[in-house]
Amino acid sequence: MSEHPIRLVLDDDTNRSRLTVFFRALLAIPHYIWASLWTIVAILAAVASWFSTLALGRTPAPLHRFLASYLKYATQLYAYLYLAANPYPAFDGQDGYPVDLVIAPPQRQSRWKVGLRAILAMPAALLAGALIGFPGASFTSPSSSSGRRSGGGFSSPGTLGLLFLTALLGWFAILARGRMPRGLRDAAAYCLSYGAQFWGYVLLLTDRYPNADPLAALEGLPVRADPIRVELDEDLRRSRLTVLFRVLLAFPHLIWLELWTVLIFLVAILNWLATLLLGRSPAALHRFMSAFLRYDIHVYGFLYLIANPFPGFTGRAGSYPLEVLIEDRRAQSRWKVALRLILAIPALILSIGYSSVLTLAAVLGWFASLATGRMPRGLRNAEALALRYHAQTAGYLMLLSDSYPYGGPCLNGEPNAEETAGGADGPVPG
Predict the structure, then answer these.
(1) How do beta strands 223-224 and 99-103 pair?
(2) Of 70, 160, 60, nearest to 106 (Cα)?
(3) 206 and 232 share a domain?
(4) What is the count of structural domains for the chain?
(5) In terms of residue numbers, what domain contains 373?
């Protein structure tokens, strides 16, 4: 598939000014006002563009340039507000911001797609709600205690989209360290990329549907050798019959998983005490909990249509197309073990956002699989990212590893002892 006509360009070094981050909501007040005024004009321009594109089959160049500038400005502003970038943005959507858009010139569009654009955009709007917040709300920074708002906008932080949660955690991390964790920054950039493509589709800048694939949203993704990682085969074919009855088919697994979870809770307490005493998880407990985590991912991979075959009930390694690779036990820091529940709080917060992405992508994938017999790659990969984060968070809580969950999209690399001996960023998911 050719590259999307609306692409996010990322040129950010993750360094942040603690002072401007602390006062970011106040510094952005002029932008709140300007964005509100520009949004009003953009709505009128979008209506004119709809009639023109419906009549001509192509968006007039002046309207395309105006709406493209608005979309670039909105993306740059949100990158600033949500800490994906550091410099103060310009007011005209000019090129050169660390988080920027490349928007292709106007192309011919299908008139029936233009006429039905509001209906066709509804599925993308649901996923956009999980990533950037539900559209049509306000410009608000996560660091704002007063909740200043302006009408109109690019997303709603009040819905606790993934973008808002990355900024919330990133705000504390930046004040502590002076930089935005790479994983959180890339997760925010992924949200902004999808949001820009969604709004570009709504504003008729393109008739290419938004691409939900996190692996296609950003260039230069890091290659990581995390001690807990997910591998997935490339088969996107789905059986319509098993997709239709997927929840019913998964019911025995959900019951068995619930029973196994009760036992795991007791085993996890025993493992915590043993690891605190010995400095590493006992081999038998590590194997048992690894099998549980693999089974958990197999079940939810089947339920959420990430994989097609019916899974086994034992969590055996190598038995399913969606595979969780868990390294052998290693020595762990006792103080991290003692404080594991507290240290895991940021990861659990971010997992809220990823859970929403997982659920909505599965709902959309269900309809797509019934219609086409295939799971869209973008939705499948978005779910895989969310499920990988779930696996790493659960593994961190169960002491299968003391490497902190990585909050953004990445590529799998070969592990080695130096890379996996400890967390890359401490108690921050990224």
Answers:
(1) unpaired
(2) 60
(3) no
(4) 2
(5) 223-420
